[in-house]
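Narrative summary of target 7.
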Amino acid sequence: MAAGSLRLIAASLLPWVQQRQTFGAPIGSRELVQRRLGGRAARIVACDALTAWTAQLLDQGYRGELECVTAKVFGSEAVKEATVDVLLKTHGGRALLAGNLFTEALWDLLAPTVYEGENEILTLGYFRTLARRAQLATVMLVVSRYADRQSDPWVRQAGVCAALELGARLTGAPPTGEIYHWVTELGRAVAEEQFPVGRDAERGAVVMAEPLTGENACAETSSGPEA
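Modeled conformation, tokenized:
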């Protein structure tokens, strides 16, 4: 949507910058106007690139939350900038006349900045999520390097399982069969006491209910239906 709006803005400017003259030359030959047009062309390509990037990630099964926020905020802000700083300023007073793109489509051009949440709020959420991802990436790196230095194979495998699980959370990809296999194998080693849980770790006791005898058994039996 942003890329399309930017194309409309650029296209609407072309007849005016070719017709309007100052000091005997079209304003399209002025560096100020050329920089404005060139900047819109750059933003169009940037929005196209973000669209292709996020679409590819979604097609591959990723959540793409940060990527979609990035595309939405960048694209809508690019359109807002083009609307106010390029479309309005280049057309001047003509922008307020009926039939001009600025007057006819102002709502459509600016509304995306608040669709799916105000850009400032989305940006705060973006940085929060980005910080969380940075934390996950840091932990994944530390765990991987630590596990690589261990001599016990089950400790190394536990580190690999932790790193793989963190990597899946980091990318938003679903856990693979390999992750399930490694974690299951590790769990079997723990159950068979092959994984060193720690020499000083106190073993839990198996708590069972004592069998009921005599009067206690009769009381329990008689109170059962009423309970």
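DSSP finds nine helices and two strands in the chain.
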